[in-house]
Amino acid sequence: MNKQTRADWRWADKFFKSISRILKENFGKNITVTVAPPELDLEQATDYLLNMDNKNIACRMRKIKYFNNPRFRDFTIRSWRPTNAKTEWAKIKEGFGDYYFYGWGTAPKVQKYMIIDLHKFRASGLIENQEKLDKEKHEKTNPQENKFKIFKPFWLNYTGCIIKKNFK
Q1: Whole-angstrom distance, CA of residue 81 vs CA of residue 47
Q2: What whole-number distance in Å separates Cα of residue 164 and Cα of residue 168?
Q3: Could you tell me the CATH number of the domain that includes residue 67?
Q4: Are 49 and 133 in contact (CB under 8 A)?
Q5: Domain span at 116
Q6: Is 150 helix (H, G, I), strand (E, B) or coil?
Q7: pLDDT per residue as tens digits for the range 102-126
Q8: Other C-beta atoms lying within 10 Å of the C-beta of residue 130
C-alpha cells in the first residue's frame, strides 16, 4: 500500500463514529458497523461491513469546503492513481460493494452525506454512459494527477440510486 493511500485512510478513519451513527440511523439501530479488513478495501470497494445480510459499504469523505462550493458538489469516484493501483471505479464496475457512503465534513464530524445503492447505480446506465460522459469532460484530474469519474447528485437522484441524503 502506498503512502497516499495510507494518508487517505487515516483522514477518513477520523469520521468512523459519525459515519457509524448515520448508518445506524438509516439501516437500523441494532446493526453493527465494523471497519473492513484492508484486503477487502483494496480489492472489493469495502470500507465498512454491516451485520445486516453481510452488506459491504464503500466510503469516501471529502472536506466540507467542496460541498460548500456547488461546482464541486459531485459524487466522484477515483478512476486512476499514478501508481496504477486498483481503484474504486474498477471495483464498483466489477460488482463489488452494496452501498456507497459519500460524505463531506470536518473531522471527526460528517456534515453532509448521501448513501448510494450501488446495485441501482450499476443498473442505472450511468456506468455504461461514462464513455460518452468522459468525452464531455466528466472526468477530473486533481493536482496529484489522480483521475475521478464525476456524477452529479441530480443524476443519481433521478435514476433512483440515492437511498438517503441530508441536503437538497
Answers
A1: 18
A2: 11
A3: 3.40.210
A4: no
A5: 3-165
A6: strand
A7: 999 999 999 999 999 999 999 999 9
A8: 19
